[in-house]
Amino acid sequence: MISKFPKDFLWGASTSAYQFEGAYNVDGKGLSVQDFIGKHYPKDITDFKVTSDHYHRYKEDVEMMAKMGLKAYRFSIAWTRIIPDGNGEINQKGIEFYNNLIDELIKYNIEPIVTMYHFDLPDNLNKIGGWKAKETTEGFLKFAKAIFTSFKDKVKYWITINELNVMILSGHVINMVDDLEEWNRIKFDVLHNLNMAQAKVINLFRDIVPNGKIGPAPNISAVYPASSKPEDQNAKFNFSMLRNWTFLDVICRGSYNPFYLNFLKKQGYNFNPSQEDLAILRSAKPDFISFNYYSSSTVEHMGIDEKNTNLNDQQKGYEIPGYGKTVQNPNLLKTQFGWEIDPIGLKNTLKELYDRYNLPLLISENGIGARDVLTSDFKIHDDYRIEYYNQHISEMAKAIDDGVEMLGYCPWSAVDLVSTHEGISKRYGFIYVNRDEFDLKDLKRYPKDSFFWYKTLIENNGSDF
Ligand code: BG6
Fold first, then answer.
1. Among 174, 61, 34, 173, which residue's Cα sits nearest to residue 431?
2. 10 Å Cβ neighbour count for 59?
3. CB 31 within 8 A of CB 24
4. Residue 316 binned pLDDT confidence (cut-offs 50, 70, 90)
5. What angle do CA 444, 446, 451 make, to 5 degrees?
6. Residue 198 domain-assigned (yes or no)
7. Cα-to-centroid distance, 87 and ligand 1 (Å)
8. CA-CA distance, 398 to 354, in Å (whole number)?
9. Could you tell me if 287 and 260 are in contact, meaning their C-beta atoms sit under 8 angstroms apart?
10. 3-state secondary structure of 211
11. What is the pLDDT of residue 310?
12. Does residue 279 belong to any structural domain of this protein?
């Protein structure tokens, strides 16, 4: 069968530095907010100090990725390895580590895709106000300049900020918010600063890496109305705007979404960016959109007078009086961790995204978290993961067939790593890492059944779909 996927399609996989590298204080690395995870979470899950110890095992990991046949590998660079205090001196040891990793990937013809920032804000910057402080944007630009200059000849694809929308909407769930009340007061300023930092970094990129490609990586999902009631359709419109489009409009269209500006006004928030800022936002455009997709959302009408019972608690869903509230979708099955599984939602998301922005799309995350079991003969029979990927890739092929332009697919995750807030027991990898929540065992790597399945799929460029 002829494959629907382009011949140079980037079949890849993803990780992020703080969830995968470990070595949290090695070779001059500074501390990030993620190194204080104990502050936020119960003591029955691991921290990010060792994780999968990729820092010391990157050669073995890349060799296994090559055996799996990966064409691309998306990883993030830890800001605190490059600039330990966030905004000061460059740490050459940090540059060296990523240089070696990139060389190793190139050795096996694996295209490196670099995420610049994945939730691991330097703690020194967090202490002085995080993204609210101007020093954080300064530091980010300094960090960007250092990595663009060091890797411009080796890395073509760059991703600016991972899930900027999740940071704003659910920063407390991913260990980035100390005080939720304060956060709710400042988060729209933070959002503007992040948008500005992203735009400035793109402009800097054009100067330093003129032949490279750069894009954002929000978490985007199709939003369904809970019923055919017209008021539920209105909630769908509102929620898509608040969850998805407002974040992409800024970067792709160069301006804030008008409904979002109105939303801020109604929330009593005085949002008045300067003309100079708005001109910078207009000047910076991405080459592609990468996005993370795990699940769709379903919403229903919520009256303006209805009481909000769980303000901003992503665990329970979102409720915004006058705009809508999320509800469960009775048509979808769930993962062991309660996430709704919606492969057709991926096709819907791809088509909506492409229709709206007309930019090539890269899926930078998609996957299923599960309590995988290592058998006594060191096998992992993760047929549920194979089924999950089969269904999602099949819908991706249909989206391409319908006219969507795609660059690649980098599911989460290449190798097992520590989840943002549910420990190592929630595994996502094609490659198993032998450790438990607190017992580090031997950290040995074992290919799961999904590893062999993905290898075959890559070999025939997804021609079964
Ligand atoms: C994405 C993040 O939101 O989802 C990853 O970019 C994260 O960092 C992934 O690990 C899966 O979420 P979780 O909470 O199960 O780790």
1. 61
2. 12
3. yes
4. low
5. 145
6. yes
7. 27
8. 14
9. no
10. coil
11. 62
12. yes
Nearest of 338, 333, 453 to residue 393 by alpha carbon: 453
Rounded to an integer, what distance in angstroms lies between the CA atom of residue 113 and that of residue 159?
7
Which residues lie across from 330 on neighbouring strands? none
Tokens for 15, please give them.
Answer: 């990780």
Which ligand 1 atom minimizes the distance to the CA of 367?
11
Would residue 105 count as lying in a domain?
yes
Residue 399 lies in a domain: yes
Which helix (DSSP H) or strand (DSSP E) does residue 395 occupy?
A: helix 383-401
DSSP state of 217: E
**For ligand 1, which residues put their CB under 6 angstroms from it?**
16, 19, 162-163, 166, 219, 292, 365, 369, 412, 419-422, 426
Question: What are the helix (H) ranges across 21-91?
Answer: 54-68, 79-82
The closest of 426, 422, 425 to 439, measured between CA atoms, is 425
CA pair distance 178, 167, nearest whole angstrom: 13
Name the residue type at position 69. Answer: G
Q: Which residues sit opposite 113 in a β-bridge?
A: 74, 157
CATH number, domain containing residue 251 = 3.20.20.80
Domain extent, residue 176, equals 10-301+332-459
Q: Looking at 365, 387, 422, 437, which residue is catalytic? A: 365
What tokens were used for 4?
């629907």
What tens digit of pLDDT does each residue of 235-245 get? Answer: 999 999 999 99
Ligand 1 atom nearest residue 174's Cα:
14
Task: Tally the domains of the chain.
Answer: 1
* CA 34 to centroid of ligand 1, rounded, Å: 13
What pLDDT is recorded for position 41? 64
77 with 21: CB under 8 angstroms? no
What does pTM read for this prediction? Answer: 0.97
Among 74, 170, 365, the mutation site with the greatest number of ligand 1 atoms within 8 A of its Cβ is 365
| Spacing, Cα 419 to ligand 1 middle (Å) | 6
Peptide bond into 413 cis (omega under 30): yes
Atom of ligand 1 at shortest distance to CA of 294? 4
Distance, in Å, from the CA atom of 92 to the CA atom of 446, rounded to the nearest integer, reads: 33
The yes-or-no answer on residue 63 being catalytic is: no
The total of other beta-carbon atoms located within 10 Å of residue 189's CB is 14
Q: What percent of the chain has pLDDT over 70?
A: 97
Q: Exposed, middle or buried, 244 (CB in 10 Å: 0-12/13-18/19+)?
A: buried
Among 165, 339, 412, 425, say which to mutate for ligand 1: greatest number of ligand atoms within 8 Å of CB.
Answer: 412
Per-position DSSP letters for 269-302, written without gaps between them: ------HHHHHHHHH---S-EEEE-S--EEEE--
Question: How many of the other CB atoms lie within 10 Å of CB of 210?
Answer: 8
Residue 180, pLDDT > 90, answer no
| Residue identifier of the C-alpha nearest atom 14 of ligand 1 | 420
